[in-house]
Amino acid sequence: MRPPCRKNRRCAVKIRFDRDLIEAAYLSAGPREDLDREELYDLRDERERNEAFGAHHARWFRKAGFEARLLGAFAEWPRVGENCEEAVLRRVRNPADEFAELFRNREGLSRVGVGLRASRLTDGSYLPFLRHELAHLDDMFDPGFGYPGEVPRDPSPAAQLRRERYRILWDLRGDSRLQRRFPDAPDFSKALARHRSEFERVFSFMDLAEREALFDEITSETSAPHARLWEVACDPRHLRGRESVEAPGAECPLCRFSTFQWASNEARETAAPAIRNEFPDWRPEHGCCERCAEVYAAVRSSAIPPTVLLPSRLSQSSRVLLQ
Asked: Is 106 domain-assigned?
């Protein structure tokens, strides 16, 4: 039997349910008497038996209301339905594999793949999960957000760090948006607090006032577009257009510590390629302390992000990060 595929009357996208997801949802609902299903074991032909089990589970899935609820979740985001030809919900076992992914072919048609644990269907957590993922997809189809069609793949440590910053900022933006749209759902307040904790950890090099201002900007109703999120992710220390002031005790533009030992011109030139991997707008004339020049020069050919080796400003602060 082919996996069920339904056209949502309130949403233009066709939604297909993976057979493994349906069967796992049936089993996740717990043991119960099902005489019709028990009779299927008497079928001798293996293919016929498998088809019969698939049809039985699909009928249960529909009768239990899961199909209608999932269709309704997609209907909350009409822009996704209007821009996608098909969405496939498949079963995953690992929480790390639970996410929605957008695929585009050469003709410009879009398809969505959603990884979902079957237990979410029976415990009810599928709805906040789908809302979170579909909110991201809605952003990607929103011209006002300006998400780029093609995102170049860069496996470097610096690129990974930029993507992590961007992910946190985008999650904060999405959670605050969902909290305003669904004020009676407690899940998004909890998610916002969790991502706020990540934000505090990843952006701990910023002053408290800077972090507060950035958090308020990202979570405001004006909703920062993609370009702004990416700008912050790539240049969180605002080095763009900034000239160095190499005075004794001045702040290094990279580690943000006060320094009395500025790197020589030769040391800065040596470390420059590694520094620009993390700070694309940095130039040697911006300057840096001797410690930063040594660290970035040392990791120039390694796979260790410079920020792992640099001392944390948090050690000199009484701030305590949320857990």
From this structure: yes
At 234, the pLDDT band (50, 70, 90 cuts) reads confident
Residue with the two structure tokens 């809302």: 131
Mean pLDDT of the residues in the chain = 84
pLDDT of residue 323: 28
pTM check: above 0.85: no
Which of 116, 141, 166 represents a domain boundary (last residue)? 141
Structure tokens at 121: 């269907």
Share of the chain above pLDDT 70, in %: 83
Q: Show the 3-state SS of the chain.
A: CCCCEEECCCCCCEEEECHHHHHHHHHHCCCCCCHHHHHHHHCCCHHHHHHHHHHHHHHHHHHCCHHHHHHHHHHCCHHHHHHCCEEEEEECCCHHHCCEEEEECCCCCEEEEEEECCHHHHHCCHHHHHHHHHHHHHHHHCCCCCCCCCCCCCCCHHHHHHHHHHHHHHHHHHHHHHHHHCCCCCHHHHHHHHHHHHHHHHCCCCCHHHHHHHHHHHCCCCCCCHHHHHHHHHCCCCCCCCCCCCCCCEECCCCCCEECCECCHHHHHHHHHHHHHHCCCCCHHHCCEHHHHHHHHHCCCCCCCHHHHCCCHHHHCCCCCCC
Query: Do 3 and 22 form a contact (C-beta atoms < 8 A)?
Result: yes
pLDDT band at residue 1 using 50, 70 and 90 as cut-offs: very low
**Rounded-to-integer distance, Cα 124 and Cα 120, Å:** 6
Using the predicted structure, report yes or no on whether residue 320 has a pLDDT greater than 70: no
CA distance 280 to 288: 15
Same domain, 167 and 100: no
User: Is the pLDDT confidence value at 306 over 60?
Assistant: no
Are 166 and 55 contained in the same domain? no
